[in-house]
Design brief:
about 250 residues, 2 domains, 13 helices, globular
Length: about 250
């Protein structure tokens, strides 16, 4: 079991299952079908992370084939829009890691692949019923959160990326410019929640908790810059905010 956890880097992506679950519960009530969505999200993410390791570490064993096969086998159980979003996810993560395109070595494209890829997980869950403007707004919210996470990741791994000759957006712009982009996406996420409240889609508590999250990390980056421990803090605080979002969404 421990070997499977390591091979598929489950600890690195388990929290991203929350996106597909949030999408599901935003558009329908609780049902046993959620297990199907969790399984699909797990196979897609296991494929993405193990494929990335295969090309980064030049491994001989193609562990990524199993989750890829499992995801393709379960996809016929979903509707056409969900299948479309799933194939888009597979396309992005495949060419993110695989030569010759290898999007992760291309500035701008590499960052947006991460922001869009995880947003697609939310769209898969949300498409359980008709896709509406509300889904687009929530997608933009999670896209913004993920862009900040990606920029923090790039800054933390800057020296390692230089050695591996991975030309990221951070290498192109420099850390100071990337910090400004973090502020932009953080506060854009707050604006989205204000608009959701204005449309009476969410309660006032939704933008309030987002405001605290955004303010904390804005001040943290202003005071200390982007440092290694910030990546862990952003992940932990993001999970907490996600759980609060769940509590608001699932409230009767």
């Amino acid at each position: 079991m421990l070997n499977i956890i390591k091979i598929y880097r489950i600890g690195d992506w388990l929290h991203y299952i929350g996106f597909i679950m949030l999408g599901f519960f935003l558009n329908t009530s609780f049902s046993i079908d959620i297990l199907k969505y969790v399984f699909l999200g797990s196979t897609l993410l296991a494929y993405a992370f193990s494929l990335n390791d295969f090309f980064d570490k030049h491994e001989e064993k193609k562990f990524f084939l199993l989750p890829l096969i499992l995801s393709l086998l379960i996809l016929p159980l979903f509707n056409s829009l969900q299948m479309t979003f799933s194939f888009l996810f597979l396309f992005i993560v495949t060419f993110y890691s695989m030569p010759p395109l290898r999007f992760k070595t291309k500035p701008f494209i590499s960052s947006f692949c991460n922001g869009i890829g995880f947003m697609l997980l939310f769209f898969i869950g949300y498409s359980v019923q008709n896709f509406t403007f509300k889904g687009i707004l929530f997608g933009l919210l999670f896209f913004s959160f993920n862009m900040v996470a990606q920029f923090i990741h790039e800054v933390v791994d800057l020296e390692e990326d230089k050695k591996e000759k991975i030309f990221t957006t951070t290498l192109f712009f420099g850390e100071e410019t990337i910090k400004k982009y973090c502020y932009i996406f953080l506060w854009f996420s707050f604006i989205v929640t204000i608009y959701l409240f204005y449309l009476e889609i969410v309660s006032p508590f939704f933008p309030l908790i987002t405001f605290f999250f955004v303010t904390f990390f804005t001040i943290e980056i202003l005071r200390k810059g982007i440092y290694r421990e910030l990546r862990k803090k952003y992940k932990i605080f993001g999970i907490i905010v996600g759980l609060i979002y769940f509590s608001i969404i699932l409230k009767p």
